[in-house]
């Protein structure tokens, strides 16, 4: 089966609507299911609000059947103190004179009103927060790794040796020619043989021991 796409729905004005409706329930006495009597005055209230804001009312009302409308009798609490505590539970805030603050805090302590006295739920939340803070403080900080310094005993990677160059084949052109020898004055070379058997006449004033006049005379 393929997974179905899910959507998240959020009501941005939910908290404002709930706060306004609680005030409406308190002022109009709508859906009231419990009564609180003190100092000759009776207040029509709601179990869910009292139980969520007071540990005393939670323990008192949790075993009473829903079809019944119980009456909770309170002593040593004035009407003004009770009205102020009810406003605080339904609206989250209330206003009182400084001269009456001490007596109001004593009444809130008797009824274990959350937000005015320290309750078991507040202690659990506080313990959880302290444990998280303590765990964060105990968690060792991971040091940043330091760069390793090169050790003289350990050498780095050896560089590869250069490949030997291929042997070049020598050519005749690579052999320099022999140096030229200077001419030396020595005896003249022997006369070349004559094709007819006699010696060739050498360049000079004489040929075969005769001068040019004798040679010319022989032809005359």
TrEMBL record:
GO terms for biological process: regulation of transcription by RNA polymerase II. Residues 175-196 have a biased composition (Pro residues). GO terms for cellular component: nucleus. The keyword DNA-binding does not apply. Residues 132-145 have a biased composition (Basic and acidic residues). This is Longitudinals lacking protein-like. It comes from the Eukaryota. Residues 32-98 form the BTB domain. Keywords: Nucleus. The keyword Transferase does not apply. InterPro entries: BTB/POZ_dom, Dros_DevTransReg, SKP1/BTB/POZ_sf. Residues 121-131 have a biased composition (Acidic residues). It holds the Pfam family BTB.
């Amino acid at each position: 089966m393929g997974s179905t796409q899910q959507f998240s729905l959020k009501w941005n004005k939910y908290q404002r609507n709930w706060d306004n409706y609680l005030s409406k329930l308190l002022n109009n006495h709508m859906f009231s299911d419990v009564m609180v009597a003190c100092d000759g005055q009776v207040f029509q209230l709601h179990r869910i609000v009292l139980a969520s804001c007071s540990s005393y009312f939670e323990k008192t009302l949790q075993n009473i059947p829903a079809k019944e409308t119980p009456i909770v009798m309170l002593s040593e609490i004035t009407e003004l103190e009770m009205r102020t505590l009810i406003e605080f539970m339904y609206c989250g805030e209330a206003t009182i004179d400084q001269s009456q603050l001490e007596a109001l805090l004593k009444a809130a302590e008797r009824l274990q009103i959350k937000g005015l006295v320290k309750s078991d739920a507040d202690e659990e939340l506080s313990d959880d927060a302290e444990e998280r803070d303590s765990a964060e403080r105990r968690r060792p900080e991971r040091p940043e790794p330091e760069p390793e310094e090169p050790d003289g005993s350990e050498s780095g990677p050896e560089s590869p040796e250069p490949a030997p160059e291929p042997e070049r084949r020598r050519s005749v052109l690579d052999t320099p020619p022999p140096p030229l020898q200077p001419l030396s004055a020595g005896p003249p070379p022997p006369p070349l043989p004559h094709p007819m058997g006699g010696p060739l006449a050498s360049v000079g004033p004489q040929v075969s021991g005769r001068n040019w006049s004798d040679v010319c005379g022989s032809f005359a």
